[in-house]
Amino acid sequence: MIANFSFKIYTSTEDLPLEWDSLAANNIFLSYDYLKVLEDSAPDNMICHFVGLFKEENLVGIALSQFIDLSNISSFGERDHCIRKKVRTFVFKNLSSKVLVLGNNMLTGQNGYYFSKNIPASEGLIQLNQAAEALRHLFAKKGLKTHLTIFKDFLATDIQYFNIPEFNSYFKFSTQPNMLFLIRESWKTFDDYIDSKSKKYRDQFKRARKKSVGITKRKLKIEEIRSYRSRIYELYMNVAKNAPFNTFYLPENHFESFKESLKDNFLFYGYFIDEELIGFNTLIKNRSDIDTYFLGYDDKYQREKMLYLNMLYDMIGYSINKQYKRIIFARTALEIKSSVGAKPIDMFGLMKHSNFFINLFVSKTFRFFEPKMVWQERNPFKEEPTLKQ
Q: How far is the C-alpha of 290 from the C-alpha of 324, rounded, in Å?
């Protein structure tokens, strides 16, 4: 007898099956508490849905989808004002601005779905592909035509599961790598980490710490996050608007909503000179991993105080002292993350355009829209560590 697999799409976390969190136990980004953050404070141009996969009446898989409308977003950042950017923006907004993501576009890594052992990976992906089709119809009824459907982010070992007929029309792509920091068992303290560096990078650390004199750092409670809301948003946007590619901007209440829902699993650190907030960073506890989240800073102090580099050291120090296994540093700022010991891990995705003819040329036009990042990988250690994915 062939098992009866099916899916159900939910628009609210309140409607999720009671057993949802039992499947999300291995990944906080699929948990009810995190999905509640998306429900309460997702970017204005993002609509989230939640997908349950069933075998008969039993929940055997969970997934997240995000519909992103890029038509009113300055996707290619504010630093590049050339003709190429203007052409990319025009074509992008008219032909590729409505995007359905099966996964989480706000994070790096496979945080989009989880299947139990009771559903084969191939069957789970078939169900998700059918759910994507149902979602496209749902948005079409609202007058929102989906241009692109994307499944993201997968390791090379995982992308092979998509080698089934249902995904033959999808284009496999790879963008910037995920910067992964593996914490060695020999590092019991932050000093052990510093001692493992070569002289050049120990000197870099000393120089950064010397520059940071006068800055105080403290963990903020939800009341403080709320009271600094406008300044936090100003610092966040200062960084976000200069990114090479944007698909969303967080709303002002996002960080307080995050803290309210995830509580001690979400850490918000403010950096101050006297009583002025000059920067912040955020961390998320995810079992044995620490995921870095969004940050912000004042450009003046960033240059003068080497603020971003000092934040990276602080994230590493916290993770070592609390005995986490890995830090997920995500994309962007690849070279400076490499200089503190993070290693690039290639990530892959699949995309398909809704227009059959355009879809034939997706592979040829992809690089035109994807900003090319040229960077040099660094090795700050005396010995090269063994990297486990």
A: 7
pLDDT of residue 113: 98
pLDDT tens digit string along 232-278? 999 999 999 988 778 999 999 999 999 999 999 999 999 999 999 99
Token duo for residue 73: 């977003």
Q: CA 48, 152, 176, 245 torsion: positive or negative? A: negative
N-terminal to C-terminal alpha carbon distance within the chain: 37
- Apex CA 176: angle with CA 281 and CA 201, to 5°? 60
What are 170's two structure tokens? Answer: 């999808």
What is 5-176+346-369's CATH number, 2.20.25.90, 3.40.50.970, 3.40.630.30, 3.40.190.10? Answer: 3.40.630.30
CATH 3.40.630.30 for the 179-344 domain, yes or no = yes
Helix (H, G, I), strand (E, B) or coil at 226: helix
- What is the rounded average pLDDT of the residues 160-177? 94
Does position 227 have pLDDT exceeding 50, yes or no?
yes
